[in-house]
Amino acid sequence: MNSHNPLESVYFINIPDNFPLSSSAMHIDKTIPLPVQRKSSDAPGNFNMEDLTAEQILSGILLTLAYDHHNEHLDYYRSIIKQARPNIITELSNAAILKAKNEDWELAEELFMTLRGIEPENYAIILNTALFLDQRAESYRRSGLHDDADAYDNDALMYYKDAMNAEPPISDAFFNAGFFYLKQRNFREAKGCFETYIALTCDITDEELGENGIYKKERAQEIINNIANDNMDDERFSNAARLISSGQEEKGLAEIRKFLETNPKVWNAWFLLGWGMRRTNRYEQALQAFSKAIECGADTNAETYNELAICQMEMGNLDEAKKSLLKAFSLSPEDTKIISNLGFLFEKIGNNEEARKYFTTVLEFNPNDKIAIAELARLENIQ
After folding, report:
1. Whether residue 20 has pLDDT greater than 60
2. DSSP string covering 189-225, please?
3. Do 155 and 112 contact (CB within 8 A), yes or no?
4. Residue 13: beta bridge partners?
5. What does the pLDDT average to over 34-40?
């Protein structure tokens, strides 16, 4: 969010009786102050009623709905917006989704705030907000901004939970929340979400579902089966993932070791063990765990090879790290974490030109990646 207060550009005015504003376009109650956005050309404190336009009022109302949640006249302002711009929800939703797709995070966030201000009980908007925050967290994590990513994950979870409380239920809220929980390695909650999605769509015919709906239903069932078959909804597994991700690695490692005693073939458990070890700089033990994960079925999982490569780099096994990263890259060629690590690997090898290519590629996917920007600047200074 911008550090300045957007409401600083808004004045609240009472329109005089003789003001020539079309009452047919906007049914104005002249006893209620209207928010008006100052023109960018106006000096602060200067306001000329004669120059007032309908667009200034609409802009002022939108800013008020987005940022002034305790204003006593919000319902009235909402009614004005909907009278003046009947398609405002569709217009702003399309714009917000496009901005999020282009990773214009600040403007997308402001648009979603405005949408929630106009229709705070619209659960489609709430779900889209959750998806936006989830996407933003993922982008920040790829860029190495883990604290920011965690904060947006927490916000996304809040909106997912809100969307899952909708009446009548929104099946897509549970489907998307299921994938959110999968990324968090909270397989118990993920399974519950996908089971709810199946239950909500069980009476819908294939014709009504359509090709995409059928795919989603099959995918949800596949994930449920995988979680159940590997016992990953076990409380011990869930606790281990939660503890490790929250910085309580030793407690988490103890839990996942106990889980592995009775589930020695679950590659996700070996991955979790390796992840906890890597986070605590026990690279050799982590490498062994990731290797075991690959042996148990993670041979098509790019993240496992990426983690394995990190351990190999830390241990000085650069040739092996290169093999692991190239394997990860072949499985997930647009994953900027992997591409960035290839850049770091070639830096370690001493091939700065090749490193520069990889960091440049990262910026093609994410122009705001701070790690890639910093590394390219540093490499430029080495020349």
Report:
1. no
2. HHHHHHHHHHHHHTTS-HHHHHHHHHHHHHHHHHHHH
3. no
4. 34
5. 84
Listed residue (203, 188, 274) closest to 236, CA to CA: 188
Residue position matching structure tokens 């405005």: 114
Q: Would you state the structure tokens that stand for residue 131, as one six-digit string?
A: 């998806």
Q: Residue 355 in contact with residue 347, Cβ under 8 Å? A: yes
Find, among 198, 228, 225, 226, the residue nearest to 214 by Cα.
198
Q: How far apart are the C-alpha atoms of 360 and 357, rounded to whole Å?
A: 5
Going by C-beta distance under 8 Å and a sequence separation of 6 or more, which residues neighbour residue 144?
A: 340, 369, 370, 371
Tell me the two tokens of residue 377.
């600047």
Residues 10-47, buried b or exposed e (16+ Cβ, 10 A)?
Answer: bbebebeeeeeeeeeebebeeeeebbbbbbeeeeeeee
Amino acid letter, residue 70: H
CB within 8 A of 98, min separation 6: which ones? none
For residue 2, what pLDDT band results from cuts at 50, 70 and 90? very low
State CA 156 to chain mean position distance: 7
Give the other-Cβ count within 10 Å of 149's Cβ: 18
Q: Angle at the Cα of 137 (from 122 to 369), degrees rounded to 5? A: 135
Mean pLDDT of 91-98: 96
Among 10-24, 219-233, 267-281, 291-305, the least confident range: 10-24
> Is pLDDT of 25 > 60?
no
C-beta of residue 34 within 8 angstroms of C-beta of residue 60: yes
Question: 34 pairs with which residues across the strands?
Answer: 13
In 3D space, the residue among 260, 246, 249 whose CA is nearest the CA of residue 288 turns out to be 260
